[in-house]
Structures are given as structure tokens and as C-alpha cells.
Amino acid sequence: xxxxxxxxxxxxxxxxxxxxxxxxxxxxxxxxxxxxxxxxxxxxxxxxxxxxxxxxxxxxxxxxxxxxxxxxxxxxxxxxxxxxxxxxxxxxxxxxxxxxxxxxxxxxxxxxxxxxxxxxxxxxxxxxxxxxxxxxxxxxxxxxxxxxxxxxxxxxxxxxxxxxxxxxxxxxxxxxxxxxxxxxxxxxxxxxxxxxxxxxxxxxxxxxxxxxxxxxxxxxxxxxxxxxxxxxxxxxxxxxxxxxxxxxxxxxxxxxxxxxxxxxxxxxxxxxxxxxxxxxxxxxxxxxxxxxx
Length: 293
Known about the structure:
By secondary structure, the protein is mainly β. The protein contains two helices and 22 strands.
């Protein structure tokens, strides 16, 4: 049985410290490894890794085969909670590797041994949403209206968003435009709506600060190709309602909107309740805010 090894260096040319988060069973069909078993590689064994890599420094990780290959993903995180991931497959790493958009790779393979040099560069966008939890909403808004900044008194935490806008392959399309966020009662989970130019509006579920993958391997649900701008969002029990608006171009609102209902009791299989769909047309028929009781 062949034995393989992987020696990887990671140059941090990013302005933030990289902190090890986990390694997992990444594979060709799911290279970022989301939703897969953590603490194990798909094939192989992780031998060592740098727990932190400071800006300007070079860290490393090392793995060996257990069986015929080494295959998996290792994930680091910036101080802004942006994930940086590296997928590898040895011995044929050259045609079968993938990594975050802000990572470049140089490969040197010699028979069963692969030496890989990664470099993590600055990204133009941050892959998260910042949430502030305040104890008294009315009082806080009054203070903001009067010129007070109470952010330092609020509990701040970040939600990861999707690595890609649906169908676009460009993370900036997604991250620049999220419309609605709703915290599901009794949990720390959020539903978030967003849009990407030339693609249907969508929503996704964020569980424990990270986007959730359904049975099909997607971490978002497409809504409407015509009404591409989802806005208002609310949940009552297991029913999610989303308001969607038509836009002509990037900034001009059209005269159509609709309201769609979803059964979300099973996050891995969200179901559209198409018999409850409401269609609206005419001036002022917008759907920027939705209420459900």
C-alpha cells in the first residue's frame, strides 16, 4: 500500500491573525468541507498544524495517508470571523485542490510526497454580518437619535454568510447586499435574505453563527427570478414569510411584488407553501416590511 504525505506552508499576507478552526472531510464535490465530519480527514491523518499565524508570518500543517490517499480540508479564521480554507488531495493534488478566493497555491510534487505553499492575501470584502444585542431597543434608538453611540454597550457577535452568491461565483455579489435578518425565537439561529445581480433572490439559515447546508448540499434557498429583491422577513411558529420586490436594473423598484410562505420545521428540507403565495401589482405595492401573527 502506497504511503503519501503532505507538507504545507501558509504565508499570512493578510492584516489579521489566522486562527485554526477545524479540519474535516472535505472532498471534490464539497471542497470547503461545510456540513462534513470535523476532526477527521476524508482519507488520511492530520499530524500537525499551526494554531495561529500572525500577519506577515508563515505557518504550516502536515498530513499523511491512512490508506491510498490524503484528502480533506483545513479551515482557519480571521479576527473578523472570515473563514479561510484549504482543500487537498494527495497524490494528485495538482488537478484536485481548491481554496478560498483570497488564497494562492504553489505545488511541488515528487512521487508520493507533496510540498504545497499557500499565501493568504487581503480580501476586498468581509464575509460576515455584525449583530448587536441591546437590552432596551426603544431606549437605545432614542439615544442614537440624540447623537449617542451605544455600540460599546451592546453585545456584538458575527454571523458567517455564504462563500458564494447563488450562481455567480463571486462572493462580493452576495456580501454587498443582504436585506432582512430575523432571529428565530428561543434559539440563536437567524434567517437572512439577500440578492445577487442576475440571479433569484434567496434566503439562508444561519445556525450557531454559520450557514446551514440542506440535504442537497446547498446553503441557500432560491426565491424568485423576477421579484429578485427579498426584503421583509418574519417567522411564526414553523412558518417563514418573505416579501419580494421587482427591480428594474440595480436601483429602480418596479410595480410588482409578492409574498411567499415556507414551512421551515425541517431546516434540511425547507418547503415552499405555494398555495399561500400572494401576488401584488401597482404603485406603492411594495414588500419592504412583512408582519405575521
